[in-house]
Amino acid sequence: MRQTPKLHTRRWERVALAALILLLAGLPLAVWLDMQNIAAARLRSQAGDLNSMITSIRSYYGSAVVGRILENHGKDTQVIHNYEAVQGAIPIPATLSLELGRVIADKQSNVSYRFISDYPFRGRAPHQLDDFEKTSLASLRKAPEQPPLVLATSSGTASQVRLIAPVLMSAACVQCHNSHPDSPKKDWKVGDVRGLQEIEIQDEISTSLSSFKYSLAYFLLMAVIGLGFILLQRRQNAVIRGMNGELASANDFLASVSMKISHYLSPQIYKSIFSGEMEVSLRTQRKKLTIFFSDIKDFTALTESLQPEALTELINEYFTAMSSIAIRHGGTIDKFIGDALLIFFGDPETKGTAEDARSCLRMAVEMQNALAELNVQWRKRGVEAPLMVRMGINTGYCNVGNFGSADRMDYTILGAEANLAARLQSIAPAGGIAASYETFALVRDIAAGHALAPVHMKGIAREVVPYAIDGLLDEDGNTTKVFSHSGDGHDLYLDLDRIDADAARNLRGVLHQAISALDNKS
């Protein structure tokens, strides 16, 4: 399952690298397309400027030269189209335009100029018009005032622009054409479209590209650097992925180990160690704790009556149930000593001395109730003798922390107060709880109990007055009762707090019948 994100990451890296390569490969195409647009715009502007220039020259020539000569009735000077064959003659404006176009074409190899008309003078070859020229002539005669018509084309690495503008008849041109013997049309008017003035400019895109050689070299260099950076990042990512894989394996191993270790430690101790709150060193401190000690009555006899496998299963079920209750109430499980259980409250977490004692007592009562339910289950499975557990609780100061050696430690408690909890357990009735006066004073608001005869215990200098816990108090101050007894031929577990009125009436009838039967048997 861990490989799936890595595969997705590698796939996206390959896609990103392929996309970058395609984008870099497309850079020349993008530049070429831009150059086409730039060249076409530049040629369009150049053709327009050239058209305007020739038109202005022709207009000036027609008005300032030809017009003045015609006003003088052509004395000493002729204005004719074949001016080269006549001494002292000058060309008409149309011929001037043709001559200018020829001169421009000779000087500029990429520029051509045509002055064409569908009304050529007699003796001249008719002009061949292509579709664009025919369409333009028809359009301009309908609307002479419109802007010049432009046709831009591209072929391979070359761009071409053709610009067509109308040749309008001026007063001098009308006078000349209407009176000239070779003119095919004699009814010209000022403003009529005589023909077309076409300028064609071609440009090789490679010429424009050469102007961007430094930019293209820069882009190419950046592309190489970017590609190298990506390849380096890809290599580093592979290394990081390998390291992450090793770390993930190490983390899995550590998680597995820590999970196994957690089963050997109380949850509070485990949490404190792995969160860094507790130092793993030989260090103890003195705290006021409430200590709980329990032991199974006649456990030796039980071991003789059960097979080892059955005994192991039974004792593990018992400790599992008791441990779950202890953890739920916040107790720190110190250790299992054979069939005995040592738990303390107040370290490493505490709710205060009084509340720690109350939590411990509630835990003990719940354990006795849970044991009664377990006895019913065990009896159904063939365990003849029920388990009876004695419990002792004491509150006092103990040393708590890490005991042992630098190589192996045990987080536990030491002190006379811990020993007193074990002594109290030994005098508690079977299935009962005995608490010291120090503990009972802290829990008397939630529990009922009665004093037992004072006793002297080994290792305890003072006289100890134990208290037998009768039960917890409910909200009205009444003692909650739980009756539990098991033996050959009977199992009794009765928790009055969990029985409602209807169940109590039914149960009362059953118990009356049972009492009557017992009376008859006696």
TrEMBL record:
CDD domains: CHD
InterPro entries assigned to the protein according to its UniProt record, in alphabetical order: A/G_cyclase (IPR001054), Adenylyl/Guanylyl_Cyclase_3/4 (IPR050697), Nucleotide_cyclase (IPR029787), Tll0287-like_dom (IPR021796)
GO BP term (any one): intracellular signal transduction
SUPFAM superfamilies, per database record: Nucleotide cyclase
Top-level division of the source organism's lineage: Bacteria
An annotated Gene Ontology molecular function: adenylate cyclase activity
One Pfam short name: Guanylate_cyc
Residues covered by the Guanylate cyclase domain: 290-425
Transmembrane segments: 214-232
Keywords: Membrane, Transmembrane, Transmembrane helix
Listed name of the protein: DUF3365 domain-containing protein
